[in-house]
Sequence to fold (226 residues):
Amino acid sequence: MRVLIVEDKVKLAGQLWRALRGEGMAADVAVKGEDALWMAAATKYDAVVLDVMLPGIDGFETVRRLRAHGQWVPVLMLTALGTVDDRVAGLDGGADDYMTKPFELRELTARLRALVRRDPVERPAIVDVGTLRLDPAGRKVWRDGQQIELADKPFALLETFMRQPGVTLSRFELLESVWDNAYENRSNVVDQHVRVLRDRIDRPFRVKSIETVRGRGYRLREDGGR
Fold:
């Protein structure tokens, strides 16, 4: 297990390095977010321990750039900023876990082991498919840079499509993804909301991005209808 420690405080970085080495892990240290970006691009890490308050770009921006560059290594953020807004900003920016200083080294190493047990998969904070862009945290959608207002269910349906472009999804799969089991009128609710989506994200822009696959369901074109 190889871990990148991104921490500008020399004493804490040394403590983290020794703790991880004591757990049998390999560890490298970066003192700036900019250094972390090129090190993560050059070396395959199993996890990143990332401080928020860094010289140059901060931890929030560092994790955003990692995700934007297609780096899906698990990221555990460390910070003295303990407010709910700070934690939300870190997690919505692409971090996988969050610890507030001061912390116990034993808990940190346990959290790292738990993170590494998960397979790294693409989970971008902002989802782009062709000219469509979706911000799950901000609940915003754009087509060609123009913002589109969507109610909760059409938004959730679009996110499901955009997370799996080119994949045919059955009506049952879409129901399971967007509606809970307590919803009773399940007969044609998917078809109704697909029509709503087409009216909002396709027809005003004269594109056809959501395709009907006869007898199977629907899919979002991989180019997003570009």
